[in-house]
Amino acid sequence: MKALLPTLCAALLAAAAPAAHADYPDRPIRIIVGFSAGGPTDVVARAFAAYAAKSLGQAVVVENKPGANTILAAEAVAKAPADGYTLLMGATNHTMIPALYGDRVKFDARDSFAPVCTVAVSPTVLVVGPSMPTDTLAAFLAKLKAEPGKHTYATPGTGSSGHFASAQFLRLTGTSMNHIPYKGASQAITDVMGGQVDSSLATLGSVLPQVQSGKLKALAVAAPERLAELPQVPTFEEAGLKHYRADAWYGVLAPVGTPAPVLARLSQVAAGFARDSASAQSLKALGMQPRPVCGADFGRQLTQEITEYRALARDLDLQAQ
């Protein structure tokens, strides 16, 4: 009889597991954001949290944990219990971090997390503030070439999508600027508007209201065609810079080992958010488009991006100090 006890216990646990997962969620869920409040990742997280709370019938709370280029937040989620109650609102920079930090970080976007879904994407826009009074990409480039190393660009942090986009831009144009990293997009854009920093290659979601109000000037968008939100702004291709494109995704990641039924439920909610007409309108107002890429497809995207950004960081000699 004693010999049968381990087998019996295992069978009982296996039988109980589906029932436990069927009750998910039975308490509030946390979504950790690696940036300060007000930036595009935070805005997407809060919109998703509101939708998820209605869909799941539980409170979904957004917790901001900025610092170290989102590494603090990512490491906290990677170490959290794999039960679906602590999630990460990931972004493109989470596939860039391995290229910059290597073994110095305690997580890997491919191995430490279970991919749920991307929910939105935002193109990148070159914006300038009052300290860089140029109206076209050509004039901007002429100023950089006439005054090499004098001007500045802001990003949400070293290794962020804005940092990689800027490094690519400088390489393609043969120009140089000084990098001013911040702990999030909100403060970076505030300082561009204030004239403390000259420019930023920023996600559309982080600068659309400021461009529409005239507080920032958009010179070009890194997208295949002009944006409906900014029809007067040319693409980089139209403005004379060929083969330059950059965008940023936002998506939900869970700790690796999260049970498949929980991941399936979260994927269902995330895909529903991306398809929801009200959500689509709110994202569009922020300069974003809904784009659900879920499960294994999202995982393949993560793997591909990590490989590509490692190669790019090596080519551009980018590394975190």
TrEMBL record:
Span of the signal peptide: 1-22
InterPro entries linked: BUG, Bug_dom1
Record key words, sorted: Lipoprotein, Signal
Pfam families: TctC
Domain of life: Bacteria
Similarity field: Belongs to the UPF0065 (bug) family.
Protein name stated in the entry: Lipoprotein
Species per Swiss-Prot/TrEMBL record: Bordetella ansorpii
